[in-house]
Amino acid sequence: MAPADDPPQYYVQWQDKEVPVWSMRTVDYGLLLSQDPQEVDKVVKACLEEGYFYLDLDNIDGRRTLQDREDVLNLMQRFFEAPLEAKNEYGLIDSHLGYEPVGSRTGAFGAGTKDGYEMLKVSRDEIQQGSPRVPSPIKNGGDLQLLEKAIGSCNTVTKVILSALSTGMNLTGAERFENSHRNDRPSTTTLSMMHYLPAEVTGQHKIGHQKHTDISSLTLLFSDQWGLQIRPPGECGAREMGFVAPKKGCAFVHVGDSLRFASGMKFQSCIHRVVPFDPTEHRYSIAYFLRAEDDTMFVDSEGRYVTAKDWHDQKFKAFTDPWQWQAMAPKSMILGGMTEAGADDPEPVTAYAPEPVKAH
Ligand SMILES: O=C(O)CCC(=O)C(=O)O
Ligand SMILES: [Fe+2]
């Protein structure tokens, strides 16, 4: 049986309910690097049938990326402790780089809620050009070197996956996916560092990260902490929202809209959101968004012929629009044309809606 039809691995208690923890394939990075035919087949099937998989990096080729991830985690924890004025020194410089404070977008529980995370994004292009605009708490030479190393290794890992996908889909020459993700062409590729605050600190209407599919081609996501939920695609629309269990030595990789479009809608884009699994903890996650070159053309979920940059800008605007406007945008924008049936939560979520802490 293909994992897309597999029952959940197990259930966990969340919000007084039994919530599935979805099973998924684990792809071995070392084998993928060698274009092992079975592993290539596995990653292609994962993208065609589910739109996501674990990538096992706990091997000679991947461990340096795991180390980079540890280093970034330390750096971001230090950064997020800095005063807001220092973090927000340049604000959000462009949609794919800069700082976004808590509450900039819609939250996990939809209309009327705001997100519960702050985020710093560093542009791959700017790192490559040697002039990244990053706020002063992480401006020293060591920090920049570390960011360059991490972005470089995430870039390599995601390109290895792209290359395996091209091979597995029998793409040759200019048709190969890598050819629209060249390093020397401008793109909105970015490393995004996120800090989710406990609801007690943010207040009752600022929680989690709204349900969406990513704009990107591939997302390489790291977090040791629970909170990420996905809706596996199914025969009659996406199935129930369930958790992704953090897996040691592994990243969670998922397909975003751009690669779904580039595959002629053959690949699934992953519907996901972030909820407070443990509402008292601070949650940290790192996402590398590999995006197509700005002028790559594809047919989007609306049937329009658009550039990767246009898709990025329009969807980013939809992400950051007030929820009333978001409700008016086509649903295919936020979910990249993926369909779903049924509500995310059988009942409205109220358990994590404590009164905001009053300032003294
Ligand atoms: O924080 C996470 O685990 C996921 C974040 C996410 O979905 C995003 O930034 O697009
Ligand atoms: Fe996402």
Structural notes for this entry:
It is a single chain. It is built from eleven helices and 17 strands. The chain has one domain (13-334): Jelly Rolls (Sandwich). Mean pLDDT is 90; it is low at 353-360. It is globular. Helix 2 packs across helix 6 (141-168) and helix 3 packs across helix 6. It is 30% helix and 22% strand. It has helices at residues 29-33, 37-50, 63-81, 84-87, 124-129, 141-168, 199-202, 257-262, 308-320, 323-326, 331-335, and strands spanning 10-14, 17-21, 26-28, 52-56, 92-94, 97-100, 117-123, 190-196, 209-212, 218-222, 228-231, 242-243, 250-255, 271-274, 283-290, 297-299, 305-307. 2-oxoglutaric acid is lined by residues 192, 194, 209, 214, 221, 223, 228, 272, 274, 285, 287.
CATH structural fold name: Jelly Rolls
Shape annotation = globular
The named CATH superfamily = B-lactam Antibiotic, Isopenicillin N Synthase, Chain
Bound ligands, each once = 2-oxoglutaric acid, fe (ii) ion
In round numbers, the mean pLDDT is: 90
Distance between the termini: 58 Å
User: Total number of helical segments?
Assistant: 11
Structural class: alpha+beta
The whole-angstrom Rg is 19 Å
**Main beta sheet, described?**
9 strands, mixed
Low-confidence stretches: 353-360
SSE order: EEEHHEHHEEEHHEHEEEEEHEEEEHHH
Per DSSP, what share of the residues sits in E-state strands of 2 or more residues?
15-25%
Please count the beta strands (DSSP E, at least 2 residues each).
Answer: 17
Number of domains: 1
Name the CATH class.
Mainly Beta
Strand order of the biggest β-sheet: 3-4-13-10-15-8-7-6-5
Q: Which CATH architecture?
A: Sandwich
Estimate the helix proportion, in percent. 25-40%
